[in-house]
Design brief:
Blueprint lengths: L4 H16 L2 H13 L4 H40 L7 H24 L1 H4 L4 H15 L4 H18 L5
Helix pairs in contact: 1-3, 1-4, 2-3
């Protein structure tokens, strides 16, 4: 898909919110999926699948995300066509780039109410952006701090049986 996993986020978000979980689950899983190595779509599928149905749910969710791509790429590779030489296909690919940007923007717009709730989240987002923009703290250190803070928050707010 043009735009990578981020262009798939509106579709993934809609499916998660309408079938399995609420908006808050997706908005909390997204930063964790972004901090993990690997494709965002696979990461968010793994996290959500595990939350919904445990280990087997994570495996099935990952298969659901990667199998269509593997099949399409396999078919294209088998056909051995050079798609860039076909003017219609090259034009279509150029036209899809703005669509991918729009899909990413739509995903951010849908998350605005969960991200802007309260004062702490916008303040942390602004502080992170400033620290990155000014080059005060390396990105890897900020990611590490965010993962630590998320883990601490999850531990402090966990439900006792």
């Amino acid at each position: 898909m043009i735009g990578g996993g981020y262009s798939m986020l509106p579709l993934i978000q809609r499916e998660i919110n309408t079938r399995w979980a609420d908006r808050l689950v997706f908005s909390e899983a997204l930063p964790l999926a972004q901090s993990l190595p690997g494709p965002i779509a696979v990461n968010i599928a793994t996290i959500t699948g595990r939350a919904v149905a445990g280990f087997s749910g994570a495996c099935l969710a990952v298969c659901g995300v990667i199998l269509p791509s593997i099949l399409v790429i396999g078919l294209l590779a088998a056909s051995m066509l050079d798609w860039k030489t076909v003017p219609l296909v090259a034009s279509a690919m150029n036209g899809l780039r703005p669509v991918a940007i729009g899909l990413i923007a739509a995903s951010l717009w849908r998350l605005r109410d969960t991200w802007l709730r309260g004062l702490l989240r916008p303040l942390l987002a602004s502080l992170t952006l400033a620290l990155l923009g000014l080059g005060i703290i390396p990105p890897l250190a900020l990611i590490g701090c965010a993962v630590f803070a998320a883990g601490l928050h999850a531990w402090l707010t966990r439900k006792q049986p």
